[in-house]
Each structure stands twice: as structure tokens, then as C-alpha cells.
Amino acid sequence: MLEDVRTASSTLCKALDHYVSTCSKLCDYHLQECAADKTDELLNTVANEIRLVISYEEKLKKSKSSINVIRNSSPSAVPISTLPPEVLMRIFQIVADDQPEILDTTNTPFKLSLTFPKYPETLSHVCKRWRQTALASHSLWTQIDLVLHHPLGPGFLSRAKAHLKRAGQLPLDICMIDPTLGKDYLPYGKPYDFDDYDFLIFTETPMRSLGLISYHGLHSEHCGFIEYCITNCARRTLEKLIINDATGRGGPYRFIESADRFHDPKTLQIELSEQMLECFWNSASILRLSTLYPYWTSQAYHRLTDLRLGSDKTQSVPISEAHIFGILKASPDLRALHLHLDLTESFPENVPIETIQLEELESLNLSAIVVDINPSQILRFIAPGRKPLQLSISEEPTDVVEQFLKRANVTQLRMITWGNYPPFKLLNLCPNIQILVLDVWGNMNSVNFQTVPERGGERDSDTPVNVRSLYILRCEGIGMIDLQNLVQNHSVQELTLWETYPKVGADSKRNAYKPEVCALCPVVNYLTRKEKSPVDNWDRF
């Protein structure tokens, strides 16, 4: 066999040399034919040869692929091939999990790009052993991504069907994405729409997570997808539910309830009994929802570890204080709590408020620019544990906020549009703070920037609190001297500016040059509006 390969290679080499030489001579022949006005036969021959050369290239690529498969299977040439299958499977899983998200958003939801995933498919094309290993690792294939209104939609659908065949009986992670506002926008009703989800065959395969991300509000296709998955999924397998209406346009429904019994006229009615629907919700531990929710008294809100309701970018659904209290009490192990809803129907003033112990709480986001919620309304319910806490609040802090900070171990604090309240009051209540985010959303003069008490004033004997990382966002009119004082007073090691352009000089007419800003601190991140917010992960859905 090896001798056959050598003979074929030698013959091919000689033939290629002869072919290249002949094609070169054809150029001289072309000049002669043009002079004699005899080009028709020559051009026909050239056109035919171009088609043949393309076919030769394809055949050579196939040969190269076969040779590479053999090489990649050789432990001496590729040391990773010596690893046992279970180690190789683990590496494959890390590579697949670590690849970029298929939907890339900038700091605005109106700029999107969708890319087709490389893994795990590419891993199965390297060599025979890798293919066998990848196909035997069913957990590699449990991610099912569906895309609406985009040219890549059919490719994602074919990929989803292939993944289903390879996932075995493992629970699936299913996500529908509608990137309608992207550069490849396709109007509704055009190609690449589909509403037949029977290929998901939930009677055989359970569902671990269900996700919907739409940049075009919530329409019948989206709600039909959610309804199908809930109706047909095996009971007690769902762990995570994500419904993200990223643009806030909303849709015809606000709640998801059983058709047998529902509380709101704007309800997506599921053709399951109330008991069966509650059984479906009962296993979930992570809910991240905007504009469409299980009703507030549902079992969906029991025993959660991650709860994110509403978004500052979306239309808000009202919720009463009593419902919030009931939800928090039913999930004492919450690690993340983000609330961006219109809070209505407060408890009567004469009713004593019981505090709820949330020992595991690590992330608490109550910031609001659009929705009607005051952080104090929620903080008075919560008795946090001693775990490091990331806290995000808006509006002018009250004594309720101050009392909460005394009880909590806040290590990361974001203040948004805090009015005349001096930030040093909160900093003095956070002795372990490492990260401070001041999100101004306007001119520096619209908020109080006093982070250090005045001499002779309140707690003037206190040493200013050290802050490792300081973020100043969306702040107009701040001067270089202001930044310098902040950095020096709090021994800042990392300074991040976003949509913030400090002024220089007494007249404050000139923006500081980047080298001037970078000289303020050991590490400086000077970001423009075109770049993603540096605290985007604080609000990540």
C-alpha cells in the first residue's frame, strides 16, 4: 500500500510539472492566435481547463484531508492523541463551553451580530478517534439553538436536529433567538420562519433549560415556542427558564398560566391542568424573565437560587409588596436577586414587617431608571448573610438603605443617580468595599460627589475608605482635578471611565488627552460610548 502511495505521488508530481509547463506555453500560443484572429477554439479550451482545475483542487483537498486524518491520529505526531478518552471528552467539553456566544451585542441592543458555532462539530472532523470520542460524549450535543428571521436559521435548524440524535437521553438546553434588529434583518413572514417543533420529541428527551431571547418584542412565534415546550416537556426536569424581551416592546401576554385557571386577562394559556403546570415549574432553580412571567403566586418562585425579574430596558409588569415578600420567603437560598418591576400595593404602614434571612445572597440589583421601584421597599425585607455582596441601587439612599449596609458585607457597590446624598455616608458603612461604581447618567453637578467627609464635619476623624477599583460612568463635566482627588483619597489602583471625558484647565473647555488620564492611576480603562459598558455583567440576563 505504501509503495502504491509513493508511485501515485511521483506520477502526480510529474504530471503536474508537465501541466504547469504546458499552461505557461499556452500564453505564448495565445499571442500567436490573437495575431491570426483565431481565438474561439482557444477560449473554449481555456474555459474547460478552468473548470477542470477547480475539480482538481477539490480532489487534492480530499486527499489532503485523508492524509491529515492519519497524521492527527498518530500519537508521535500529535501528543494529545495519547490521552485517554475520558480526559479527551473533558477537554472537548471545556472547548465547547468556552466558545463565544452565538449572539454578540454591543452596548446597544440595536447592534447585533450572529455567528455560527464551531464546536463541537469541528472536534468531530479532526480524525477518526476524535470523532468516535466526540460522538460518544453525549453531553457535548445537548445545546439546541434555534434562530428566527435570519439567513443562518436553516443551518441552526439542521444543527439542532443533528444534536438531538447525538445527545442520547440527556436533558436538553434549548434556546430560541430572534435577532431581528441585526444587519441581516428579515421581515416577518419571510423565509427562515418555522413553527414546527415536533422534531424536539420531548416524550423521549427531557429539557434542562428553556431560553427565549428576542430583539423584536414577543410575537406569536415566540409564545408558540414557549407553549409547545412547556406542554410537551417531561415533568420535573426543568432547571432554568430565561425569557428576555431585550427591546422592551412586550407582547400580547404578561403571564403564563394554566387554561383551567388564570388570574390575568393577558395570560398565555397553557393546555395543562394547574397541577401539571405547577409540576413543570417546581424543579426550576433559576428564573431570568422580562415581560412574560409565571403568575406571582406560582410554585415557580419556590426554592430558587437565581431570580431576575424585569429589566430597565423593558415594559414593566406591576407586582405587589405582598407578592414580593411571598416570593423571597419561599426562596431562602437565593444567591442572585435582580428586581426591575413596578412595585404597587404597599403593606399598610401599621403592619410590622418580618425580615427574611437570605444567608447565601451574593448579588442584589435594585437599580431602576425606567420602572417605579424604590430600593428601600425591598431592602427592608432582607436580612443578608456575611457573604461578599454586590449591590446596585438607584435614587437617593434612605435610612433603610443605610441600615441594610450595616447588616451586609458589601464589597461591590453601584450607585445610580443618587441626587444630593453624599456617597461617603455609604462608603463608611462598607469597610470591606473593593469596587465602587458611580453611574451619573448626566452632568456631574446633578449629583453629590463628596466621597470624603469635610474636616470638622461628620466623622471627620475617619480615614477615607480605600477602593481598589473605581468606575465612573456617563458623567459629563467632571474635571481632571476631581478625578485626581478621588484616586488619591481612596488609594484607587484601577480607574475605569465610560462615556466620561474629563476636562482640563480652569475654563474646562478642553477634554483631557488619553495619556493625561492614564497617568492618574496604575491601571486606567478609558472607554468610549461605542464600547460595551464595563459593568454590563452586573445587569446580564
Automatic annotation (TrEMBL):
Name recorded for this polypeptide: F-box domain-containing protein
Naturally occurring in which organism (per UniProt): Rhizoctonia solani
